[in-house]
Amino acid sequence: AARLAASGDLSGRRVVVTAGGTREPLDPVRFLGNRSSGRQGVAIAAAARARGAEVTLIAAHLEVAPPEGVTLVEASTARELQHAVTDAAADADILVMAAAVADYRPAVVVDSKIKKEAQGDTLELSLVKNPDILAELGASRRAGEYPGLRLVGFAAETEPDQAALLEMGRAKIARKGADLLVVNRVGWTQGFATDGNSVVVLDGAGDIVSEAAGSKMSVADRILDAIVALD
Ligand code: CTP
Ligand code: CA
């Protein structure tokens, strides 16, 4: 019933969603990655489409099929994702950064396979920081760019204590300059590659505007409700 009631409320709106997890190459056969499956981001793209939006899905190594009826842009590394997001954000109304973006990448990517024999018993990797796509967009917006764009971030945290988790979320949304931050708890057995999710949505002031639990599709609709309610 909630889905039917919401149907069409994003009609004509341009929504960009990032989903999945970036991979940062080390050599031609290896990468540093993360466990994001892309399910929650794909559900948001599907729900936005069902509500009438024109959707661009920027996909980094999805483990699930993308929804029909969306424009698919593939990105592998954090920097590729940044280029895709910057292009798509220029004429978007809403950007939802659900992808797990690698914070660091190998400082050097070698052209041939790293060999054990040349390394010995330990291998040290040197990593450099990737651009923080969301924080940079937040800063550009504060400087007057992207005037009509709604910016939504995600924060997956392992913090077990709910109050501490929310405090982290409040600090994070302030750092990012986003309109909303979707906070969820993740762990060895929680959050990834599962159908369900449980989230708290914070606004720019750090106040809770929504709490949702259930299938990733129903959580997607509650997140979109919170975005629509910004207007
Ligand atoms: N994000 C991004 N660019 C990065 C890292 C993260 O745009 N290089 C976005 C993510 O897509 C997400 C939000 O920022 O929407 C929060 O990501 P998260 O990893 O929780 O926050 P970080 O600022 O990277 O802090 P940390 O990982 O140390 O908790
Ligand atoms: Ca991070």
From TrEMBL:
Keyword Disulfide bond found: no
Domain DNA/pantothenate metabolism flavoprotein C-terminal: 10-229
Required cofactor names: FMN; Mg(2+)
Ranges for region Phosphopantothenate--cysteine ligase: 15-231
Comment on bound cofactor: Binds 1 FMN per subunit.
Keywords, alphabetical: Decarboxylase, Flavoprotein, FMN, Ligase, Lyase, Magnesium, Metal-binding, Multifunctional enzyme
Entry similarity comment: In the N-terminal section; belongs to the HFCD (homo-oligomeric flavin containing Cys decarboxylase) superfamily. In the C-terminal section; belongs to the PPC synthetase family.
Name of the protein in its database record: Coenzyme A biosynthesis bifunctional protein CoaBC
Native source organism of the sequence: Leifsonia stereocauli
Gene from which the chain derives: coaBC
